[in-house]
């Protein structure tokens, strides 16, 4: 078999066989296929697409390029959730303790998360803003924490889907990220390798997401659900709104503080609503509780402090200091806090959410390149969100940063991301579609 022929076949719109896909994935991981040929194939896939069989083959070949986690020793049902990436999306930090507290000894959340890059935040960076907390946990310790506490969130271990690490890095520099079969195989190979029985996918759509339109997002959701089912897992996807940041906090410790407040019943309504929805769906997938009953139970756990205590317990088990969650004033605040004022009376009628994420990264909260250091205290506190009425001169946001020199560019980016108008914009749903 020759890589040249595989590229030519896909370039001309042909469907690749499982053997051809295996030849590419195994050869690329082994270093036998050079970047220029892999790039050419990725661009051909980007332009010509892949059918369901090809996408499933690509996913399974990537999945088996490295280790696969075995969670069977935990006993009960294992669950995982994954967001395709957004701005202010801190739901994992709340959904993991909610699920872990809901049905102890029967439902376990063994979650492996990623870091933020570009405009999207990463769960690991947010968690690591809690002093002492480690996300680099050995496999046996991970299983022990999950068994004892019902959940944990750690970094993907060394040899999990090495094919994705290599292919994603190449896609990132060859303008081939935005392809449904490539995104679906990248996400699903990692989710399947992480070993959970039930996988809930939160597919974000809108100005702050990879998928800009609902039909595109539904197609991605359907592709991933079909892959999951083909691999014998219970998979469901929700298509949710990312045309506005979720909640009011963007940035690492700011988002942890918001979650701590939400789990004590003091969180923004949109964030609480989405977390209850995700928790309800996941519990229903386990077969141990209906979605409505699970949402009621989650609400109860917020009201009686059970969910917040569980978050503190998991944080302590991973070496973090839960005192920071109980008294969030302990988090180091950014020395510069700049208020942004509304330029006129009216409403916030559009938010370019990707640009808000970029402004947060420019303040120091994110990485503009892999390996950049993060300022955990940096970010954006929204005092008003999409659809809110504002008066001229009213503060609509506070930009947090440790460096005066970063503020000018971030402020320009943030200001350009908000559109004010005199008419109240239409209310937008949080949920667009459910796919299973
Ligand atoms: N997230 C991933 O893990 N992979 C993609 O291709 C896109 C988003």
Automatic annotation (TrEMBL):
SUPFAM superfamilies: Nucleoside phosphorylase/phosphoribosyltransferase catalytic domain, Nucleoside phosphorylase/phosphoribosyltransferase N-terminal domain, Pyrimidine nucleoside phosphorylase C-terminal domain. One of its GO terms (cellular component) is cytosol. PROSITE patterns: THYMID_PHOSPHORYLASE (PS00647). Residues 347-421 form the Pyrimidine nucleoside phosphorylase C-terminal domain. GO terms for biological process: pyrimidine nucleobase metabolic process; pyrimidine nucleoside metabolic process. Transmembrane segments: none annotated. InterPro entries: Glycosyl_Trfase_fam3 (IPR000312), Glycosyl_Trfase_fam3_N_dom (IPR017459), Glycosyl_Trfase_fam3_N_dom_sf (IPR036320), Nuc_phospho_transferase (IPR035902), PYNP-like_C_sf (IPR036566), PYNP_C (IPR013102), Pyrmidine_PPas_bac/euk (IPR018090), Pyrmidine_PPase_CS (IPR017872). GO terms for molecular function: 1,4-alpha-oligoglucan phosphorylase activity; thymidine phosphorylase activity. It comes from the Bacteria. Keywords: Glycosyltransferase, Transferase. Belongs to the thymidine/pyrimidine-nucleoside phosphorylase family. Homodimer. NCBIfam families: PRK05820.1, Y_phosphoryl. This is Pyrimidine nucleoside phosphorylase C-terminal domain-containing protein. It comes from Collinsella tanakaei YIT 12063.
């Amino acid at each position: 078999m020759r890589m040249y022929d595989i590229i030519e076949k896909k370039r001309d719109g042909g469907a690749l066989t499982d053997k051809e896909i295996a030849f590419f994935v195994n050869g690329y991981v082994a270093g036998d296929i050079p970047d220029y040929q892999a790039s050419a194939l990725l661009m051909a896939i980007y332009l010509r697409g892949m059918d369901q069989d090809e996408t499933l083959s690509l996913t399974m070949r990537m999945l088996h390029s490295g280790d696969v986690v075995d969670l069977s020793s935990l006993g009960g049902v294992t669950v995982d959730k994954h967001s395709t990436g957004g701005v202010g999306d801190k739901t994992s930090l709340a959904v993991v303790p909610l699920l872990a507290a809901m049905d102890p000894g029967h439902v376990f959340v063994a979650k492996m998360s990623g870091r933020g890059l570009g405009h999207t935040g990463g769960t690991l960076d947010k968690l690591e803003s809690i002093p002492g907390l480690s996300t680099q946990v050995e496999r046996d310790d991970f299983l022990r924490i999950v068994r004892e506490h019902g959940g944990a969130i750690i970094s993907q271990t060394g040899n999990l889907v090495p094919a994705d690490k290599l292919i994603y890095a190449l896609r990132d520099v060859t303008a081939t990220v935005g392809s449904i079969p490539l995104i679906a195989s990248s996400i699903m190979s990692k989710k399947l390798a992480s070993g959970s029985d039930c996988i809930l996918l939160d597919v974000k759509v809108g100005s702050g997401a990879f998928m800009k339109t609902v039909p595109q997002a539904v197609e991605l959701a359907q592709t991933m659900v079909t892959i999951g089912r083909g691999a014998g897992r219970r998979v469901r996807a929700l298509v949710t709104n990312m045309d506005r940041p979720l909640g009011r906090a963007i940035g690492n410790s700011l988002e942890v503080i918001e979650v701590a407040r939400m789990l004590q019943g003091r969180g923004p309504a949109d964030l609480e609503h989405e977390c209850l929805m995700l928790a309800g769906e996941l519990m229903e997938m386990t077969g141990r509780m209906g979605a409505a009953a699970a949402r009621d139970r989650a609400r109860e756990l917020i009201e009686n402090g059970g969910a917040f205590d569980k978050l503190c317990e998991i944080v302590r088990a991973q070496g973090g200091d839960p005192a920071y969650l109980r008294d969030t004033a302990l988090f180091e605040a950014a020395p510069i806090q700049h208020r942004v004022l509304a330029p006129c009376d009216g409403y916030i009628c559009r938010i370019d959410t990707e640009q808000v994420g970029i402004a947060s990264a420019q303040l120091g909260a994110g990485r503009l390149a892999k390996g950049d250091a993060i300022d955990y205290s940096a970010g954006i506190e929204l005092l008003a969100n999409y659809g809110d009425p504002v008066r001229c001169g009213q503060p609509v946001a506070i930009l947090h940063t440790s460096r005066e020199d970063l503020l000018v560019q971030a402020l320009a980016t943030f200001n350009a991301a908000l559109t004010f108008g005199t008419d109240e914009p239409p209310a937008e749903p949080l949920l667009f579609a459910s796919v299973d």
